Amino acid sequence: MVADSDNTSAPPVQQLALDIRWTDIASLDSFVAGANQQALDAVRRAAMGFGDRLLFLYGQGPVGKSHLLQAACREAGERGFKAAYLPLNEFQGMPPGSVLAGMESMDLLALDDLQVLAGEADWEEHFFYLFNRTRASGGHMILSADRRPVDLSLVLPDLASRLQWGLTLRLEPLDDVGKLQGLQARAAARGLELPDDTGRFLLSRYARDLGGLFQLLDRLDGASLAAQRRLTIPFVRQVLGGDEG
C-alpha cells in the first residue's frame, strides 16, 4: 500500500509511443451544456490554465464526459499548452507505468473512464504517483468516471482521498431540446444542415441516447455525401428505415 505522503517517486519505466487521437469535432463551443453549464465553465477555465487544479466529472452513459475532456485538450493545445487525453478503457491489460510515463509534464492532463482503474492495484499505484507528480509540477487535471470518487471502490484509500481534493461535478443528460441542439451542432461541424423537423423525427423514432443518435448521424453523413441528398425525413427513412424503433 502506498503511504499517505507527497512521495512522487516511482520506478523508472520506458514510455510507450501512444497513438491517441481525439475527434476533430470535439470543441467547447460545440458542447451543448443544458444543465451542465457549471461543468463547461470549469473545463474552459482549466483549458485556459487557471481555475481548479483538479476537476472530476462523473455521470452514467453518454452525457458528454469524453467530449469535454477532448475539447479541453484541443482548447489548451490551441492556446500553446501541452495537453494529453488518455481514454483509460483503451489501455486495459497494458503496463500502467509505460502508459502514464512522463504525463506529469503536461500542462493539462485529461484521463477518461477512471473507473477502469478501480481494483487494479498496479494501475492505482502508478496513477497515485502520477497524481502527485502532476500536482507538484503545477499541472491541471480533468478526470472522468461513471461515478463519484467516493464510490469507485479504489484499493488505495490515499488515492481515493486525493481524488476529492478538487471540484467534483455530475453531468446530467440533455432533454430533447438539448439533444436536438447537440445533433444540429454535430451536423454543422460536419458541414451538414439538420432541419428541425428532421432532428425531431430522429428523436421520436430512433435511438434516444445522444451517443446512439450521433452514430446515426455519422451514417447519414456518409449517405448524404454519396447520394448528394439533403437530410430530409424521406431520405432519413430511406437510409435508416431498418433501425426504426
From TrEMBL:
Similarity comment text for this entry: Belongs to the DnaA family.
Organism expressing this protein natively: Alkalilimnicola ehrlichii (strain ATCC BAA-1101 / DSM 17681 / MLHE-1)
Domain Chromosomal replication initiator protein DnaA ATPAse: 28-169
Occurrences of domain Hda lid (ranges): 176-240
Protein name (record): Regulatory inactivation of DnaA Hda protein
Domain of life, per lineage: Bacteria
Protein's UniProt keywords contain Plastid: no
PANTHER family: CHROMOSOMAL REPLICATION INITIATOR PROTEIN DNAA (PTHR30050), DNAA REGULATORY INACTIVATOR HDA (PTHR30050:SF5)
